[in-house]
């Protein structure tokens, strides 16, 4: 307990940064992932191929490597420079972590959304068209409500994974929960105790999310 | 193609789709063009930045690092499979005092981020060689996910399988090892291999605790002034290696899945629980 209370100035900002990293990249990856999913189900072969190529490549690349690219290699391409971030290195690394998390998680979000759309039987859309619904009505009142139910549980898994993945930023100069213990050792505190507090923080966050996900899955599963 | 969202296109829709295709190709070409332009402009295509590929000692070092990655992967995969099997059996046990702790262990290690787990072993407990911390972390995390996969596989088998085995007079252990597990493993093989892809990708986390694997070697070579700090070329090469290895495993999973589908001996289990377990393991 002492390690936690004595170093609240580390834990507070650390956890806050983790939550910030999580929220921004969650929104970003949901937006980008949905756009990718739209590409993947579009009637235009070129767009489908582009979406599929992105998903295949990114899903088979370690997230650490994506972080590695944005932290070390990307600056060498000189698209952005320190001045873009007001000369602050930590601002650059934070944005680099966001870029890595968003680009990586979007591939998984895309697959979840796509599989959700695919769970809706074709007959549902055909029937609604036969009833004379417009494309918007069909999407809004028939297909999407059914797809959403199938999508929410796996989407929560993806977001839980994203929350845990934010800790990788610890290795790339972003101060957040994962890097608390590294700073603790400089103060001569016990790293093991410090890390166990961090682990507990994630357990407390993740397990309720898992339980919520399970109950949603039970309540929303549709008999087909 | 059949999609829920679109009808078979008529003449006007086909024209519109062709327009989208042109716009899409233009956008893609612009993106690729911009990347190539940036690469050329910042000198990433210079011969000097790629010369390291020609040196035998550099190749040997990369090969060595790849060997280290594969060693961590192999050790982690074997141990995770064992861990998963043991804890799946524990979760399915009839005895409360076995079942509850097993479930707690599995939930705990699924909830703690792998990085924190590896840091606990490396900095907290100070296991010494980073190899042990990496392998132990990979084992506990992926083993827990695999335990859920195994459990879902056993639970998805028809009840008749278990009942028939008991009717034949088999003991509980025999029912599990001779009847249920073989079928569950076979049905879940694609999901298990997908989890191994995750394990292979996660082995790159060894980079954070200076385990001398592929990414660590890439950082070392990429920082060398001798070759003009070729970080971008090295990232591309290392990414290609990782993607090739993972695609190989994915291909194996797909092949097995196809064979499963053809084989009538494999009971068709609902894929959902496994899918969820895999998705959870991003």
UniProtKB/TrEMBL annotation, chain A:
The chain crosses the membrane at residues 20-42, 63-85, 91-110, 162-182, 194-212. It is found in: Cell membrane. GO terms for molecular function: transmembrane transporter activity. CDD domains: TM_PBP2. PROSITE patterns: ABC_TM1. Its main location: membrane. Pfam families: BPD_transp_1. The keyword Transmembrane applies. One of its GO terms (cellular component) is ATP-binding cassette (ABC) transporter complex. Residues 15-213 form the ABC transmembrane type-1 domain. Keywords: Amino-acid transport, Cell membrane, Membrane, Transmembrane, Transmembrane helix, Transport. The keyword Protein transport does not apply. It is a multi-pass membrane protein. One of its GO terms (biological process) is amino acid transport. Belongs to the binding-protein-dependent transport system permease family. HisMQ subfamily. This is Amino acid ABC transporter permease.
UniProtKB/TrEMBL annotation, chain B:
The chain crosses the membrane at residues 19-40, 72-92, 104-125, 131-154, 175-198, 231-253. It is found in: Cell membrane. Its main location: membrane. One of its GO terms (cellular component) is ATP-binding cassette (ABC) transporter complex. The keyword NAD does not apply. GO terms for biological process: amino acid transport. Keywords: Cell membrane, Membrane, Transmembrane, Transmembrane helix, Transport. InterPro entries: AA_ABC_transptr_permease_3TM (IPR010065), ArtM/GltK/GlnP/TcyL/YhdX-like (IPR043429), MetI-like (IPR000515), MetI-like_sf (IPR035906). Coiled coil: none annotated. Gene3D superfamilies: MetI-like. It is a multi-pass membrane protein. GO terms for molecular function: transmembrane transporter activity. It holds the Pfam family BPD_transp_1. Residues 66-253 form the ABC transmembrane type-1 domain. Belongs to the binding-protein-dependent transport system permease family. This is Amino acid ABC transporter permease.
């Amino acid at each position: 307990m002492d390690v936690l209370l004595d170093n609240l100035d580390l834990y507070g900002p650390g956890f806050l940064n983790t939550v910030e990293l999580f929220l921004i990249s969650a929104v970003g990856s949901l937006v980008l992932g949905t756009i990718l999913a739209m590409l993947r189900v579009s009637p235009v072969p070129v767009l489908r191929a582009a979406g599929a190529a992105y998903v295949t490549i990114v899903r088979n690349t370690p997230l650490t490597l994506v972080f590695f690219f944005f932290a070390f290699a990307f600056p060498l391409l000189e698209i952005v420079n320190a001045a873009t971030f007001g000369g602050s290195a930590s601002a650059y690394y934070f944005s680099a972590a966001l870029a890595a998390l968003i680009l990586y998680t979007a591939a998984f979000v895309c697959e979840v959304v796509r599989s959700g759309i695919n769970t809706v039987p074709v007959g549902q859309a055909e029937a609604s068209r036969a009833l004379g619904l417009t494309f918007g009505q069909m999407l809004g009142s028939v297909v999407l409500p059914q797809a959403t139910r199938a999508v929410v549980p796996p989407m929560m898994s993806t977001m839980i994974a994203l929350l845990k993945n934010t800790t990788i930023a610890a290795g790339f100069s972003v101060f957040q929960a994962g890097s608390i213990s590294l700073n603790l050792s400089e103060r001569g505190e016990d790293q093991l105790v410090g890390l166990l507090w961090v682990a507990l923080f994630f357990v407390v966050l993740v397990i309720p999310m898992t339980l919520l996900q399970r109950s949603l899955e039970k309540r929303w599963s549709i008999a087909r | 193609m059949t999609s829920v969202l679109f009808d078979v296109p008529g003449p006007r829709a086909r024209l519109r789709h062709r327009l989208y295709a042109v716009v899409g190709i233009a956008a893609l070409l612009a993106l690729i063009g911009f990347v190539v332009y940036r690469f050329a402009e910042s000198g990433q295509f210079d011969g000097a930045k790629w010369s390291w590929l020609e040196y035998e000692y550099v190749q040997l070092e990369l090969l060595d690092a790849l060997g280290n990655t594969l060693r961590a992967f192999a050790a982690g995969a074997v141990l995770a499979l064992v861990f998963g099997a043991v804890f799946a059996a524990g979760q399915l046990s009839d005895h409360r005092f076995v079942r509850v702790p097993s479930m707690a262990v599995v939930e705990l290690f699924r909830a703690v981020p792998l990085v924190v787990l590896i840091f606990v072993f490396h900095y907290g407990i100070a296991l010494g060689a980073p190899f042990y911390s990496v392998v132990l972390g990979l084992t506990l995390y992926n083993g827990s996910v695999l335990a859920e996969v195994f459990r879902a596989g056993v639970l998805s088998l028809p009840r008749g399988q278990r009942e028939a085995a008991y009717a034949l007079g088999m003991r509980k252990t025999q029912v599990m090892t001779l009847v249920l597990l073989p079928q569950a493993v076979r049905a879940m093989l694609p999901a298990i291999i997908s989890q191994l892809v995750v394990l292979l990708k996660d082995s790159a986390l060894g980079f954070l605790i200076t385990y001398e694997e592929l990414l660590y070697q890439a950082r070392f070579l990429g920082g060398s002034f001798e070759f003009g700090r070729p970080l971008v070329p090295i990232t591309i090469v290392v990414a290609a290696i990782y993607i090739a290895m993972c695609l190989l495993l994915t291909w194996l999973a797909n092949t097995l899945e196809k064979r499963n589908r053809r084989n009538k001996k494999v009971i068709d289990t609902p894929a959902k629980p496994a899918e969820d377990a895999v998705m959870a393991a991003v």
